């Protein structure tokens, strides 16, 4: 994503406010939105990458003016419409009935459903994929490609062009850039360490920053090296 939604490393938004004894949910509706998202993934309606991409498709102004779970709600709602789980006319009729008092919100739930959804979530994240031969090894110095793919990507903008060192080869995992659009392409993932100054300049505080990055995001820091990534 090349837009306002990629907030990592950006300044101008003021300090992060740390709330003492912050509750998991500030209002009950936030818990319901969380449940809708978990139900969507646990029932195989959408993947976590499709969910992230749905939020990234919010208009920039709406994204910045919305709270965290308001963004979640917008993303889940969009996906439920796109996947045919919700029918716009049925939803509109239900909203009208609730507003007029002709219907009430039901909080009844079948306890067996929770176990089924949890099993679906485990299945969604616990997928064995054949290992691919990695192009890089621990200790290799790499550079993050300056790629600008259309749609979703998990390569943060602030890391592009930066050089770092591979710490760990994590194995082969599904590529978020592809999975957000319905494909299950997979490739090696690397944990890469960057110096803070490499990412944000000599005034940056702190030491190293670790990022998990897919192979397509990387290239050798020295282009004359024999290594190459697809």
* Rg from Cα: 21 Å
Structural class: alpha+beta
Q: Tell me the domain tally.
A: 2
In spatial order, strands of the major sheet run: 4-3-2-1-5
User: What is the strand content?
Assistant: 15-25%
Number of DSSP helical runs = 8
Q: What does the largest sheet look like?
A: 5 strands, antiparallel
Globally, the shape reads: globular
CATH architecture of the largest domain: Orthogonal Bundle
Helix content: 25-40%
Specify the CATH class of the largest domain: Mainly Alpha
Order of helices and strands: HHHHHHEEHEHEE
Q: How many runs of DSSP E, i.e. beta strands?
A: 5
Termini Cα gap: 20 Å
CATH topology of the largest domain: Cyclin A, domain 1
Mean pLDDT comes to 88
Which residues sit in consecutive blocks of at least 5 with pLDDT less than 50?
A: 226-230
How would you describe this structure to a colleague?
- Helices cover 36% and strands 16% of the residues.
- By secondary structure, it is of the alpha+beta class.
- It folds into two domains: 98 residues, Nitrile hydratase, beta subunit (Cyclin A, domain 1), CATH 1.10.472.20; 88 residues, SH3 type barrels (Roll), CATH 2.30.30.
Outline the fold blueprint:
Elements: H1 28-42, H2 48-56, H3 60-65, H4 68-82, H5 88-100, H6 111-125, E1 141-144, E2 163-174, H7 176-179, E3 186-195, H8 196-200, E4 208-214, E5 218-220
Antiparallel strand pairs: 1-2, 1-5, 2-3, 3-4
Helix pairs in contact: 1-4, 1-6, 2-4
What distinguishing features does this structure have?
230 residues, alpha+beta, Cyclin A, domain 1, SH3 type barrels, 2 domains, 5-stranded antiparallel beta sheet, 8 helices, 5 strands, 16% strand, globular
């Amino acid at each position: 994503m090349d837009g306002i939604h990629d907030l990592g490393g950006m300044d101008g938004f003021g300090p992060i406010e740390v709330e003492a004894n912050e509750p998991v949910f500030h209002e009950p509706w936030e818990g319901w939105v969380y449940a809708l998202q978990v139900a969507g993934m646990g029932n195989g309606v959408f993947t976590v990458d499709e969910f992230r991409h749905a939020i990234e498709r919010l208009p920039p102004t709406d994204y910045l003016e919305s709270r965290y779970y308001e963004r979640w709600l917008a993303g889940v709602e969009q996906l439920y419409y796109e996947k045919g789980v919700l029918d716009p006319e049925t939803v509109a009729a239900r909203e009208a009935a609730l507003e007029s008092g002709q219907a009430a919100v039901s909080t009844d739930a079948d306890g067996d459903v929770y176990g089924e959804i949890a099993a679906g979530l485990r299945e969604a994240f616990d997928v064995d994929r054949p290992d691919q031969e990695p192009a890089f090894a621990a200790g290799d110095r790499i550079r993050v490609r300056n790629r600008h793919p259309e749609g979703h990507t998990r390569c943060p903008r602030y890391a592009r062009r930066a050089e770092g060192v591979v710490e760990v080869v994590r194995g082969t995992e599904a590529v978020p850039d592809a999975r957000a659009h319905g494909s299950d392409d997979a490739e090696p993932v690397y944990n890469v360490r960057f110096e803070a100054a490499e990412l944000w300049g000599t005034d940056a505080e702190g030491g190293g920053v670790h990022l998990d990055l897919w192979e397509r995001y990387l290239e050798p820091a020295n282009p004359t090296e024999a290594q190459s990534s697809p």
